[in-house]
Amino acid sequence: MQKLVNLSRARLKKPKPELQSLQRYTRPKPSPATCTPIVREVFDMMFSQEMDRDLRQTEQDIQNYKEPCPNGCSGGKDASVFNSIWTRGEKIECGDYVLTECCESSRVGCVTRFFTKDSVLVAHLQWFCFPKETILGEVGNPYELFMIPSCGDVNVDKILQKMTVLQLDFRETWNSSADAAVLENTDTNCYFYSKLYHKDENRFENAPSTTTCEVHGRFCYSCKLKREQQQGNTVEVRKVLHGTNAYVAVRWHKETYRPGDFVLLEPGTFHFPQQKQRNQSGAEQPCNVAAIKNILNCVKSEYLSPSNVMLEVSRYYRPEDTHLGTAYPHLNVVFASDEVYPVPLSAVVRKTKVDFVTSLRTSTIWTLHNKFFCSQSYCATTRAFTDIRHHKLQHSQEAEEQCPEVQRLRTLDVFAGCGGLSLGFEMTGLSDTRWALEQCSAAARAFQLNFPHSTVFIDDCNTFLKDILDGKKTNSKGQRLPQRGDVELLCGGPPCQGFSMLNRFREGQSSRFKNSLVASYLSLCDVLRPRFFVLENVRNFAFV
């Protein structure tokens, strides 16, 4: 190269070093995963070599589950059928919790009422399950029960003994240490429950109150669900006063529909000119949008069903249903039309909302759920768009004033990077990013520029968690650490190299150490107790 330059009688010179000092990035070494005791129980077998063995345990290890063994109780005589009975020497009343003999195992239930069936005294029970019967398996608290949406009848002679079961509400003490004190003082013969478990969905929710009394005995939650499902499948209508076949309203699936309501219809209820091209792609189709004009009964019969109650609806076009196609930027915008079609009530999915606006704001579109916006009408014949009338625009302005302002959640972003996830949450009006944790100093500085008001911790996740577990209020740099109750939304995406199918070296030691950060992230949730928790990862994460 120098010879070629010499032909032009020029000489290459070495560039002078820049005055600004550039720090060379060095990849940090992996650190052992710091975990809370309950997270350690779950992930100890998966990441046994990556766990921090020097971490002191502040709680007792969870013992193996043991079902209570009933003591021998003598039988007794029956008392009042609907109030209380005597069995095995114990008086059992409505509202008591009992252990019953069911097939090869024992089950816990709450007595809601007593009655006789074929001259046999029977108890109606609201069932509960043990942690090992849920997705928690053996890591659940051995003294915790879960209410399930199931009930049944059991002969009184199958009742083994009475149990002490308390219903606790941890919603007020979730982000404090009050719940730990309650669990530590729990008697060995005392159980508690706070959640309702849905087996089909592996989902927990707050258990309903069981103190509401009925005519006979106590309130049975499962029976109430069955009654609501039966009532939801029936159609109830209210006729117009002048005696036509039109109705003022119709109630179906716990929802009342009236003329003027906007509804979502089953995909394929309407046929559009552009539908043939979309069907060839094989993609799932969205629901159709319509407005109810009239409610009619087209069948002369006393029995009303969702198929013979017809709705006259005006069709609304989505952008992809018009000649614009999918190139239109806003997919939750609809266009009105003068086309009216009859559809059965069974085609209705649920109610929706349509606001008539003059201009579309991206922030408004992303923050509202189950809501569409309309500013123009569309004619499929002429392919022309027309502005909506003025009185509809005034109605939209009144609706916008009624929308309450949502209080943003105090957010901690873990594995924050440059702040892409936090930026998305803030654009939706959901979060207020107060803290961020990122190990890479370059990415952390970029996050600080994107969110100047936030506190950015340039530290390892395990070191950050260990400082909080040790009770420190500030880190080594003097930054205040978030404490339990400060964080309302905990979001983050742990490294996915060890889970991704695209990584050929996902079984290596480096990938396994990165995988163990999932346990550290879950431990942060256990320590900080946020109201909402978001974990983002690749698809294969759920199948490892």
TrEMBL record:
PROSITE patterns: BAH, C5_MTASE_1, SAM_MT_C5. Keywords: DNA-binding, Methyltransferase, Nucleus, S-adenosyl-L-methionine, Transferase. GO terms for cellular component: nucleus. Pfam families: BAH, DNA_methylase. One of its GO terms (biological process) is methylation. The active site is at residue 496. Its EC number is 2.1.1.37. It is an enzyme of class 2 (transferase). GO terms for molecular function: chromatin binding; DNA (cytosine-5-)-methyltransferase activity; DNA binding. Its main location: nucleus. Gene3D superfamilies: 2.30.30.490, Vaccinia Virus protein VP39. Residues 90-208, 255-389 form the BAH domain. SUPFAM superfamilies: S-adenosyl-L-methionine-dependent methyltransferases (SSF53335). Belongs to the class I-like SAM-binding methyltransferase superfamily. C5-methyltransferase family. This is DNA (cytosine-5-)-methyltransferase.
